[in-house]
Amino acid sequence: HQDLQKLKHKTLKHFWGHDSFRDPQEQVIDSVLNQKDTLILLPTGAGKSLCYQLPALLREGVCLVISPLLALMKDQVNQLKFRGIEAEYLSSELDDFDAEVIYNRCKDGLTKLLYVSPERLTNIQFLRNIEEIQLSFIAVDEAHCISEWGQDFRPSYQNIKDFRKNHPGISCLALTATATPKVLDEIKNKLELKNPTIFQKSFKRENIKIFCEEISDKYQRIFNILKFAKESGIIYVRTRKEAEQLTEYLHKKQIQHVDFFHAGLTTSEKNSRQNLWNNSSNHILISTNAFGMGIDKDNVRFVIHFSPSPSIENYYQEIGRAGRDGNASYAFLLWDQQEISNFDQILKNQIPNKTEFEKIITYLYSIFQVAEFEMPEKVFQLNTAGIQNFTKLSAAKIKNVLNFLHTQEIIYYNSNKSLSSLELK
Ligand code: ADP
Ligand code: MG
């Protein structure tokens, strides 16, 4: 055991020059070395490649890597060769002779990693040759390509299932940066991963606290928040008119450090407003979703949504503009009765008899399913009776629903009375 420990580190240092593994590379490698089906969900740049490349060197036989793009394969193989690792890829660009050479090197146990496209798994010549090659394990890179839900759906990824059936006993490592539950389930099912060990590193933004509030007088509520807010923020509204009206209201209430921003402004107006905001420590922009792309401001302390974002991806992106400096930050999602009753229509899968709170949570769930958030530790329902712990109130089903919330707590606030303890300080 200790020898293996040493061997892993030595290999890492020798071929890659790294001194240590990143979390959770080493555990993934152990799982692969133990011939377990394994699934890893890690953000781009986390270092997934090493999780199959290193065990490929330590295991006997050839690791078959399934990759969606020739450019990716070439890049990886070049890097591996540069490090002195025997790796090859098969592509239709190669003539029969080149392919023959590669197959022979695999049969002789010289090649440690063989990259192929999913299409190749049904190629007769490939299948004939593979019978004479000892495989160590299968690595499926960009495994979300197997999911019909994603944008990268690649039907030929479904070939992997049959290939696995015909090569029983060979374990599989699936790798992806997409972690929505639907996609995850599809990967598990379609690759027929048996009791897989799953490694997942969260994409969470722990410093953003989400307040989800049902409120009839949103203007008043925003005014209350801004009285406490001493730092920069963004307020997202749906229309240009809303942006202008809210700005006017706040100016009348003596809150002067706010401006509106929308696509109707001239380029120079937009630039000057954005610059002012960028360089200020307390300026607030009230904006349609015209504002956002390329924002790189560290100290955005809060993002208020005057209405729920029409797109889930937008919502995640928009609140993600808060707290880039890592300091505690706030997202306020404001609702009114009308928006809540429209809600069932927004959701494709209607679930009848939901309380309004559950509807909102379901909406948030769909937001965070996309956003890959984690379950918050606490979800509070606030009403005139006080604070109730939502996780205690609701069925386990709803708890699952919260599985992907990326915040420590969600506060649902359904009274128009302000609670001073919850005001932004
Ligand atoms: P992913 O496939 O998860 O997007 P890659 O496998 O392409 O990520 O790796 C991203 C970068 O991280 C590469 O430049 C790689 O060299 C580097 N890297 C991976 N593992 C380590 C490590 N243990 N120590 C230092 N750098 C690492
Ligand atoms: Mg990768």
Automatic annotation (TrEMBL):
<keyword id="KW-0067">ATP-binding</keyword>
<keyword id="KW-0378">Hydrolase</keyword>
<comment type="similarity">
    <text>Belongs to the helicase family. RecQ subfamily.</text>
</comment>
<keyword id="KW-0479">Metal-binding</keyword>
<protein>
    <recommendedName>
        <fullName>ATP-dependent DNA helicase RecQ</fullName>
        <ecNumber>5.6.2.4</ecNumber>
    </recommendedName>
</protein>
<keyword id="KW-0238">DNA-binding</keyword>
<feature type="domain" description="Helicase ATP-binding">
    <location>
        <begin position="29"/>
        <end position="197"/>
    </location>
</feature>
<keyword id="KW-0413">Isomerase</keyword>
<keyword id="KW-0347">Helicase</keyword>
<dbReference type="GO" id="GO:0004386">
    <property type="term" value="F:helicase activity"/>
</dbReference>
<feature type="domain" description="Helicase C-terminal">
    <location>
        <begin position="221"/>
        <end position="368"/>
    </location>
</feature>
<keyword id="KW-0547">Nucleotide-binding</keyword>
